[in-house]
Write a structure and sequence with these properties.
By secondary structure, the protein is an alpha/beta fold. The protein has one domain: NAD(P)-binding Rossmann-like Domain (Rossmann fold, 3-Layer(aba) Sandwich), CATH 3.40.50. It is built from eight helices and ten strands. An eight-stranded mixed β-sheet has the order 3-2-1-4-5-6-10-8, with helices on both faces. The protein has a two-stranded parallel ribbon with strand order 7-9. α2 crosses α7, α4 packs parallel to α5 and α5 runs parallel beside α6. The longest helix is centred in the middle third of the chain and has 23 residues. The N and C termini lie far apart (45 Å).
Length: 250
Amino acid sequence: MLRSVLLLATAQAITQPPDVLITGATGRLGALLYQQAKADPRIGAVRAFVTNATKARAALGCQKCDPSEGIFVGDVRNQLALNAAAKGVDAILVAVGASPSDPPAVAKAIEVDGVENTARAIYASKGHAGQVILCSSMGTTLPSPDPRQGGSILFLKLNAEASLLAADVKAVVMKPCGLSLNPAGQSDLLVGQDDSLLNLTVPVVPRADVARVMIEATVRRDARLRFDLCARRGAPTTNLGALLDAARYP
């Protein structure tokens, strides 16, 4: 009887829409993630972790911009604030990134320590069943990347990826090429490994499509997945599940 109850509870947990927290939700990618997650019936409650309530009001359309509306003000470098925002959620979607103008110590604290704090926060919420979807970047195989391509921040992102994939959580690392402002759903999306897609004539992907794929990985509860994402002209990609399945292989 107890085994049946446990199996039923597990099945319900899997089929119920995941509650999510989006960090960096007032940024260009984060705001898209927030909007798409709110509009997707496959996603449950949506929370935003932001550094500024005023920016949240402008970018996310909240009124009180406080926890009553799912808006939590804090910084990924603050473990306690992140834990409070993540309490009870099933997944955290990471759209936080350092600026090229940040001092090295600050960049490391955001890119590496912030991701490690995120893994700790989701583990405190859901244990090994918790999921983290990290938006990193292509270009991490380059030994000396040009500052215009990300510079030393790419090495920090690589360290964050390794740390997350070693954590006892469902980790997904998405590594997009250059980001464009084009609308979602109008490009042929491509997945790859080890920066091979940088050889495309124009290696860019719509930021809105990056958000779509991150949402899809969340709904599917993907884990232990790391891949590059880019786009080209062609028939628009509609089956994101098949795209993620293809991302598991070279």
